[in-house]
Amino acid sequence: MTTDTMTPLDGLVYRLVVAVDVEGYSKLDALDQSLVQSRLGEVMDLAAHHAGLDRSHWYRQLRGDGELAVLPADADTAWVIAHFTDALAAALAELRRAGTPLRMRVAMHCGTLTAGRFGLVGDAPIVTSRLLDAKVVRRELALADGDLVLIISERLFDDVVRTRFHDLDPNRFRATRFRVKGISYAGYLCPGPARRG
Predict the structure, then answer these.
(1) Full-model pTM
(2) 151-174: b or e for each residue (b if 16 or more CB lie within 10 Å)?
(3) Reduced to 3 states, what is the DSSP secondary structure of residue 54?
(4) How many domains does the chain have?
(5) Contact at 8 Å (CB) between 133 and 151?
(6) What are the tens digits of pLDDT across the range 94-109?
(7) Lower CB density within 10 Å: C or N end of the chain?
């Protein structure tokens, strides 16, 4: 059963949505799935802490092998893209050094949403989920040297990454386009951290 950690959403809001998903989860047995869930929770908490983010203020919809999170209204989107992604990559590298690797896809988008009876509803969670689950993102992670691939929406790239705030590097991103259920989506892929370094 999926459990939600919910910070209340009051009506229709415009927020940053972050989704993560672990590679190869469905191929694992129940014990290993449980261990992966524990490692994923630890990685997310550690990365948020190192990025100066408080996950207790996130609206989180847990999905077994991942999470769909809505960040607070005062979240600095450029900071999250730059520093949270960087911290996630560092935490995953540490797991690999410890012999317990975890590979993940991360998707981000800003848009409208609200809380529905069975979870989040609106443009933002749908677009974020479509980006996360795109075949091109799965393929990028399968071919990546590192353990993390980030995809952000075209809107986030244009509005946030191009500003280069917090050392964001637009040159680390590659445009991609795909169709799901007859709808075209555009995003920008980044293997690993999104900052200059």
Answers:
(1) 0.92
(2) bbbbebbeebbeeeebebeeebbe
(3) coil
(4) 1
(5) no
(6) 999 999 999 999 999 9
(7) N
CA atoms within 13 A on the CB side of 165: 13
Domain ranges, residue 83: 4-191
Distance CA(65)–CA(30), nearest Å, equals 12
- Please report whether residue 196 resides in a domain: no
Residue 72 lies in a domain: yes
Distance between the two ends of the chain, CA-based, in angstroms? 41
DSSP, residue by residue, 118-181: TEEESHHHHHHHHHHH-HHHHHHHHH-SSSEEEEEEHHHHHHTGGGTGGGB-GGG-EEEEEEET
Please report, as a single letter, which amino acid is at residue 6: M
Does residue 109 lie in a domain region?
yes
CATH code assigned at 50: 3.30.70.1230
- Per-residue pLDDT of 34-71, as tens digits, reads 888 889 999 999 999 999 999 999 999 987 789 999 99
Contact 80, 107 (CB under 8 A): no
Helix/strand/coil for 58:
coil
Q: Is residue 33 part of a domain?
A: yes
Q: Is 113 within 8 Å of 150 (Cβ atoms)? A: no
Token output for 43: 């990685």
Nearest-5° angle of CA 46, CA 168, CA 188? 90
Residues 6+ apart with CB under 8 A from 177: 184, 185, 186, 187
